[in-house]
Amino acid sequence: MGTGLNIYTDGGCSGNPGPGGWAYVIVLKTFQGDRILTEGQGGEKETTNNRMELMAVISALKALKTMSDVPRQATVYTDSQYVQKGITEWIFAWKRNSWRTSDKKPVKNQDLWIALDALAGELSLSWEWIKGHAGNDLNERCDRMTQAAIASIR
């Protein structure tokens, strides 16, 4: 984790499906230390954990696109293997197979995957999975924001 732009995301649900929340923090890492550029959170009344994980990343990338004077390349840190593997591995086969999984079923959350794919295609991103609830301050911050978003909708 050197210098550059880092995006931390998290999403979750109370029940699955149930009320859900998402959050992101966009950080500029410099030799002088981390500087939070922006953060955001939101939620939905009836959703799933995976949808919220995807919404966190989509919302962060939308926010990044509106910012000026920041790099257009970033590392996205997610504690969701679904998001990390989905965007770096599985999505290529899904698109090739008309948004069908290997067992010919429709890809779940296709609407969000299409949105994420479009946004990710406009930026230079690397995708890192990090263990959740393992002491990473910015991941923990996203988790607290996600929980607050869920609590605000119940």
Task: Give structural attributes.
154 residues
Topology overview:
Layout: E1 4-13, E2 18-30, E3 33-47, H1 49-66, E4 73-78, H2 81-96, H3 110-121, E5 124-129, H4 137-153
Parallel strand pairs: 1-4, 4-5
Antiparallel strand pairs: 1-2, 2-3
Shape type: globular
Which structural class should the secondary elements be placed in? Answer: alpha/beta
Give the termini distance in whole angstroms. Answer: 36 Å
Largest sheet: 5 strands, mixed
Helix percentage: 40-55%
Strand order of the largest sheet: 3-2-1-4-5
Rounded Rg: 15 Å
Count of DSSP helices? 4
The total of beta strands comes to 5
Taken in chain order, the helices and strands follow as: EEEHEHHEH
- Average pLDDT figure: 94
Name the poorly predicted regions.
Answer: none
**Percentage of β-strand residues:** 25-35%
Task: Summarize it.
By secondary structure, this protein is an alpha/beta fold. It has helices spanning about 50-65, 80-95, 110-120, 135-154; strands spanning about 5-15, 20-30, 35-45, 75-80, 125-130.
What does this entry look like structurally?
- It is a single chain.
- With 154 residues, the chain is of the alpha/beta class.
- The protein has four helices and five strands.
- It has helices at residues 49-66, 81-96, 110-121, 137-153; strands at 4-13, 18-30, 33-47, 73-78, 124-129.
- Strands 3-2-1-4-5 form a five-stranded mixed sheet.
- The model has no long low-confidence stretch (mean pLDDT 94).
